[in-house]
Amino acid sequence: MADAYHHGNLRAAVLEKAAEVIEREGPYSFSLRSLAADLGVSHTAPRHHFGGREGVLNALAVEGFQELAETMRSARASGGSLLDAGVAYVRFAVEHPGHFQVMFAPRLLDHDDAELAAASGAAFAELTGGVDTLSERGVAVEDSAAAVVAGWAIVHGIATLALNGNLDTSGVRALFADTDLLTITRRSAGLLFHSPTDGESP
């Protein structure tokens, strides 16, 4: 790993390992020292790239918001609706649980960081921009601000319930004949933002 550090790969390795640890143990128990030990480098090596624990978490959140924005943007660019972007949001969460946990743990992040502000702003712009397309698809939206909050609350809530295991332990998932999470998301979020042009595939 020392060679990887000299070739500039330590930053990527730290973020990858941090996401794995946070997925398993949560963001609040994350330790930069133990992470360095897992990677086989000195405890000071990650500080060269990140400065400290908060720097790693900030970088992970930036990476996550950038990927989330691109995921939703791609869903809409391919002709998808706001509903498709919402399904993409849930897909991102379950595929990147470590990132997702950090992105929405504000007490752990430096919100004065310009890169973080830009990345999160781009992601939320995809949510708000999607609402503007609803009227084009035959969905009446009288309060666009409320529509943004409602849409985000639904998909974020589904993602969180799934990641925490609550959809299963509550028995709610069993209410669906098809227990695929993206199908559940599409049916549930579709109650709010369904339009005649929305497809049925997740």
Descriptive overview:
Mean pLDDT is 85; it is low at 195-202. With 202 residues, the chain is mainly α. It has helices spanning 2-6, 10-25, 32-39, 47-50, 53-77, 82-95, 97-103, 114-132, 144-163, 166-169, 181-193. α2 crosses α3, α2 (10-25) packs across α5 and α6 (82-95) runs antiparallel to α11 (181-193). It has two domains: 1-51, Arc Repressor Mutant, subunit A (Orthogonal Bundle), CATH 1.10.10; 52-193, Orthogonal Bundle (Tetracycline Repressor, domain 2).
Please supply descriptive tags for the structure shown above:
202 residues, mainly alpha, Arc Repressor Mutant, subunit A, Tetracycline Repressor, domain 2, globular, disordered C terminus
Short description:
This protein is mainly alpha-helical. It has helices at 2-6, 10-25, 32-39, 47-50, 53-77, 82-95, 97-103, 114-132, 144-163, 166-169, 181-193. The longest helix has 25 residues, at 53-77.
Kindly report the CATH topology of the largest domain. Tetracycline Repressor, domain 2
Main sheet summary: none
Series of secondary-structure elements, N-terminal to C-terminal: HHHHHHHHHHH
Number of helices: 11
Average predicted confidence as pLDDT: 85
CATH architecture of the largest domain: Orthogonal Bundle
CATH superfamily of the largest domain: Tetracycline Repressor, domain 2
The rounded distance between the terminal residues' Cα atoms is 40 Å
Radius of gyration: 19 Å
Strand content: under 5%
Class of secondary structure makeup: mainly alpha
Give the CA-based shape. Answer: globular
